[in-house]
Amino acid sequence: MNERPDAARIRFDNASVTYPGGQAGLKNVNLAIEPGEFVAVVGLSGAGKSTLVRTINGLVPISGGEITVGEHRLRGLSGKRLRALRGEVGMIFQGFNLAKRTTVLNNVLMGRLHASPTWRTLIGAWRADDVELAMQALERVEIVQKAYVSASDLSGGQQQRVAIARTLAQKPKIILADEPVASLDPPTSHVVMRDLQRINQELGITVIVNLHFLDLARRYGTRLIGLRAGEVVYDGTAADADESVFEAIYGRSLTADDVLDARPVELS
Amino acid sequence: MTTLTAGGADAGRAGSALNRRPARPRTWWKPVLVLAIVVGATAWASAAVGTDPSALWRNGHNAVNTLTQLFQPDYSFFPQTLDALGETVQMAVIGTAIGVAISLPLSFLASRATNPERISYRVVRFVMNVVRAVPDLLYASIFVTVIGTGALSGIVALVLFNLGIMVKLISEALDGIDRGGQQAALASGSTWFGANRVAVLPEISPAFLSQTIYVLELNIRASTVIGLVGAGGLGMLIDKVRTFYEYHYLALIIFEILVLVLALDLLSSYVRSKVVR
User: Range with the lowest mean pLDDT among A7-16, A133-142, B28-37?
Assistant: First the structure.
């Protein structure tokens, strides 16, 4: 996976995003994220967490500065080259984003679309290798027994793990997760976060995850990036982020609403 | 909701101002206006067309005679209708199959949710609006003139008729689907074609199947009517027996259409209950 260590380096150079209507999403962000890091992005809603994560795969285009992912420069990237970048970057969404009326396996195979020729896609004839890859991805998130079940018959936690398997099937260098546990209950949140942690540690895939809850960010992230009004106000290890750091990010002292506050379920 | 700064200032001295009950909006005139327009338009239309309801009474004795015959179908005529009956069903099935198959890719081109490319979207929408604007009977008349009388003209007319309906219904269904899977596929580097094929097609397929059966139902009915202008099937037979005032035979044909449509209706509600959950 890491035959070229630089392949997954992410650099933000004065990157800015201005939404139509003049509202600023990101202001002059400078960051360097090394391959294999587990980065948690925190901040109030509207601080630009989602924008930051979505600029990395070009879902949100930057309006100023530059972002470099591996050898891809994101400014003005489009068409085939944008798809090539996106093939290397997996994404997990808050709402799981599965196609509900098809099987779990088909959903995971969606991660292979970027490498599948059009005629195979048209008639639904996946390569045997791709199906094997999808099955292995489902095994890694321990949900392979549901491979032929309709995605709509799964619980929220199961759906999110299928979504993780879908990004794994991509063989990505980077996984982006935009509020991956915001629609899940506390014990399930920990299952999903641990899956991401395991993928990061065992496969060396860079993980960048937006989190609303500070305790989750501190527990799973090795690096923490705090955003406030589109600007980076903290960038350091999760361990060093104390109460005063969170006050700087949130502009107020912490309340019970800012933590998930649940003991993780014990898995034998 | 005016400007952000005004909102912020109001929120500051909130209290009693925010808690006051709003005045009830005055909207009683809206239904009155709509009713007045509907009544006015109807009155104007009937005056302009010159409808004379009393004609219904004056021609009453003719109607009684015809109606009596229509309620006495001549079942001995049944074997002679079989060919035309078969042709009607065949025309409907072939017309549906071809029309529906062509409509699927066109529907994806005609929805903003599945086609990001503006020009092809506009072109397909425009052409389909034109296709839909022409009534099926007019298509049949045109193709009977161009191709000649018989089932082929009927089938071509039905294909165009189906295209108009299917593309309209399916592209609108596409506009309303859950686009989560499509978004995920696009974010993973897929082309729009791949995302639509793998993530959108399964979402739309129950609606597509259900509309296909609906269109088949419409086609059975339509194929009887377009036969009247010579495009094959039961319609041609209706035209023949009507010319000779054989209302007992006509009654049987109408009865057959009734049974056919009812049977298809039962089948379609059964299949829909199985596929649409």
Answer: A7-16
Q: Does B275 touch chain A (CB under 8 A)?
A: no
Which of the residues A98, A101, A149 would you substitute to probe the B interface, choosing the one with the greatest number of B C-beta atoms within 10 Å? Answer: A101
Would the CB atoms of B199 and A99 count as touching at under 8 Å? Answer: yes
Task: Tell me if the pTM is above 0.90.
Answer: no
Domains of chain B: which residue ranges? Answer: 77-275
Residue A139 structure tokens: 């095994």
The residue type found at B117 is: E
Q: Do B180 and A96 touch (CB under 8 A)?
A: yes
Nearest by CB to B185, from A100, A113, A124: name it. A113
B57-89 residue pLDDT tens: 777 777 787 788 888 888 888 888 888 888 888
Least confident among A35-44, A211-220, B163-172 = A211-220
Report the complex ipTM. 0.88
- Answer whether A110 touches B (CB < 8 Å): yes
| Per-residue confidence (pLDDT) for residue A3, from 0 to 100 | 47
Tens of pLDDT, residues A178-206: 999 988 888 899 999 999 999 999 999 99
Q: Does A45 touch chain B (CB under 8 A)?
A: no
**Rounded-to-integer distance, Cα A100 and Cα A205, Å:** 27
Q: For B183, which residue in chain A has the nearest alpha carbon?
A: A97
Task: Centre a 10 Å sphere on the Cβ of residue B53 and count the other Cβ atoms it contains.
Answer: 7
- Both tokens assigned to A62: 């930057």
Task: Write the CB contacts of B247 (distance below 8 Å, at least 6 apart in sequence).
Answer: B66, B69, B70
Q: Tell me the chain B residues in contact with residue A113 when contact means C-beta distances shorter than 8 Å.
A: 185, 188-191, 194-195, 198
Q: In this predicted structure, what is the pLDDT of residue A91?
A: 96
The two structure tokens encoding residue B271: 């299949």
Neighbours of A112 (CB within 10 A): 28
Retrieve residue B37's tokens: 């327009």
**Structure token pair of residue B72:** 């006495």
- Nearest chain B residue to A114 by CA distance is B190
The matching CATH number, chosen from 2.30.29.30, 2.60.40.10, 1.20.120.450, 1.10.3720.10, for B77-275 is 1.10.3720.10
CB distance A63 to A192 below 8 Å:
no
